[in-house]
Amino acid sequence: MSILSIKNLSKTYQSGSRKLTVLDEVNFDIQAGETLAIVGPSGSGKTTLLGLCAGLDSGSTGSVVLNGQALEKMNEDQRAFVRNKDVGFIFQNFQLLPTLTALENVMVPLELKKRKDARQKAQELLEKVGLGDRATHYPTQLSGGEQQRVSIARAFANEPKILFADEPTGNLDTETGEMIEKLIFDLNKEQGTTLVLVTHDLELAAKTQRIIHIKGGKIQEDVHA
Ligand SMILES: Nc1ncnc2c1ncn2[C@@H]1O[C@H](COP(=O)(O)OP(=O)(O)OP(=O)(O)O)[C@@H](O)[C@H]1O
Ligand SMILES: [Mg+2]
């Protein structure tokens, strides 16, 4: 079963009188439970593509069907509902809410799901990423790698069907990076979560079942291991 189906997806930005094509007629399908890496040079469109796949933004043309739901036909509220139900997202720049503590940031998706055990579950997730003793810290009181780990705990919170991770280990030392890598792949093994990683780390990419190479907004290669 296809969990994500991308057809003729393009994204253009207008910059003054010039049209900038950031994604150019992208096509691929991802099967439920698959693990995949998207690699390519800086500026090639990886983050843009991930955002469109996850319903954070919409394309200029083409379609994105996530878990049977056609995102391009939805308004922002409907897409937000799908995101909270099915999607986990680890951002390249964390995107933690600055006025909430680490614990409260992780609680957000749980509270949206009206889970009564939100606080306890969020604490467990923080412990899992090694931050049990940083629960009451605000993002500015955390190091870059710690913020990244809070954002990972938040992405795990709603037990997503598909996890999108943009450079999940980019800001971490080797040891912490390996710990996070293990958590992400365990999620795939234990819960069957589909993984879509964007990374410059070719060793990490090689651990997935499939690598999509993107350049200038176009897929160059789509290689199954
Ligand atoms: N809102 C925007 N308006 C105009 N251009 C944009 C916008 N967002 C992104 N771009 C352009 O789209 C291109 C692709 O950006 P994107 O962030 O997807 O690259 P990337 O592959 O993730 O790069 P990196 O490896 O550096 O993270 C870049 O050239 C960028 O300047
Ligand atoms: Mg990027």
TrEMBL record:
<protein>
    <submittedName>
        <fullName>Putative ABC transport system ATP-binding protein</fullName>
    </submittedName>
</protein>
<dbReference type="GO" id="GO:0005524">
    <property type="term" value="F:ATP binding"/>
</dbReference>
<feature type="domain" description="ABC transporter">
    <location>
        <begin position="4"/>
        <end position="225"/>
    </location>
</feature>
<keyword id="KW-0067">ATP-binding</keyword>
<dbReference type="GO" id="GO:0098796">
    <property type="term" value="C:membrane protein complex"/>
</dbReference>
<dbReference type="InterPro" id="IPR003593">
    <property type="entry name" value="AAA+_ATPase"/>
</dbReference>
<dbReference type="InterPro" id="IPR003439">
    <property type="entry name" value="ABC_transporter-like_ATP-bd"/>
</dbReference>
<keyword id="KW-1278">Translocase</keyword>
<dbReference type="InterPro" id="IPR017871">
    <property type="entry name" value="ABC_transporter-like_CS"/>
</dbReference>
<dbReference type="GO" id="GO:0016887">
    <property type="term" value="F:ATP hydrolysis activity"/>
</dbReference>
<keyword id="KW-0813">Transport</keyword>
<dbReference type="Pfam" id="PF00005">
    <property type="entry name" value="ABC_tran"/>
</dbReference>
<dbReference type="GO" id="GO:0022857">
    <property type="term" value="F:transmembrane transporter activity"/>
</dbReference>
<comment type="similarity">
    <text>Belongs to the ABC transporter superfamily. Macrolide exporter (TC 3.A.1.122) family.</text>
</comment>
<dbReference type="InterPro" id="IPR017911">
    <property type="entry name" value="MacB-like_ATP-bd"/>
</dbReference>
<dbReference type="InterPro" id="IPR027417">
    <property type="entry name" value="P-loop_NTPase"/>
</dbReference>
<keyword id="KW-0547">Nucleotide-binding</keyword>
